[in-house]
# Entry
Amino acid sequence: MKGMQNAIALDMVFAALADPTRRAILSMLLEDDMAVTDVAEPFEMSLAAISKHLGILGRAGLITQERRGRVTWCKLEPDALRDASIWMQSFGQFEAVNLDAFERFLKAELPDEG
# Structure
């Protein structure tokens, strides 16, 4: 059962990382905790759309949100990427994984779903 839970958690992390907006948000949070409105500022989308992205990141365990007064703050959870990193390292025998090559491999090996 634990293996299935780990697989689901890993799926959620990779699904969250699949979106460029969410990856940009994580990069921003590397610097420091940020208010939701500050996270939203550089993006040309509504605050509701940013909140959905933040929700996905939160459910994947990549960030936490904390209400301080009237402001909701976002904080990166750096340990959340550990399992994903370990999983990816197994493909490179503990070397850095070339994600572009990995994507090409997956496209070549998996049948076209279209």
